[in-house]
Amino acid sequence: MRVVVQRVSRAAVTVGGETTGRIGTGLMLLVAMHGEESGQDLAWMVNRCVGLRIFSDDQGKMNLSLADVGGAILVVSQFTLYGDCRKGRRPSFIKAGDPAVSEKLIDRFVELLREAGVETATGRFGAMMDVELVNQGPVTLIIER
After folding, report:
1. Is-catalytic flag, 25?
2. 122 assigned to active site
3. CB–CB of 53/64 below 8 Å?
4. What is the DSSP letter of 28?
5. pTM summary value
């Protein structure tokens, strides 16, 4: 599982002119599955993302978590995070999970975020999405499990 975490002041995803997810302050997560993630892996990633202290406190230090700032999460599936560009000019996606399996894993990941009490919006799996965000900082991290 590979997740790109972006601290945002706002973010939205649109599919075919329809907004499927929108948040204010929070995190946009670009999520890719390799297809062999366990429930334990998903729970670990939820705890890691929700608990990250990457929001600024009164002194401007990254010291606050998503809960501390009352933030939300926007989850966007992005299998291209497993694109391997080491050979040739066309990325290889052989490390990306099977779409049917990955969709179920991402759905479960979103369920776990919501069960953790986090307001969570999403894109649409497998769709061509327009993603819009204002990256706060900018702060962008990559987390793998």
Report:
1. no
2. no
3. yes
4. E
5. 0.94
Residues 6+ apart with CB under 8 A from 27: 5, 6, 7, 8, 49, 52, 66, 71, 72, 73, 74
Catalytic-residue membership of 120: no
Query: Out of 6, 55, 78, 136, which one is annotated catalytic?
Result: 78
In tens, the pLDDT along 29-71 reads 999 999 999 999 999 999 999 999 999 999 999 999 999 999 9
Instruction: With residue 45 as reference, give the H or E element that holds it.
Output: helix 39-51
Give me the residue spans of the domains in the chain.
2-140
Q: How is residue 72 written in tokens?
A: 């939300």
Sign, CA torsion 12/142/60/121: positive
Class of the CATH-defined domain 2-140: alpha beta
pLDDT of residue 103: 96
For the stretch 101-115, pLDDT in tens is: 999 999 999 999 999
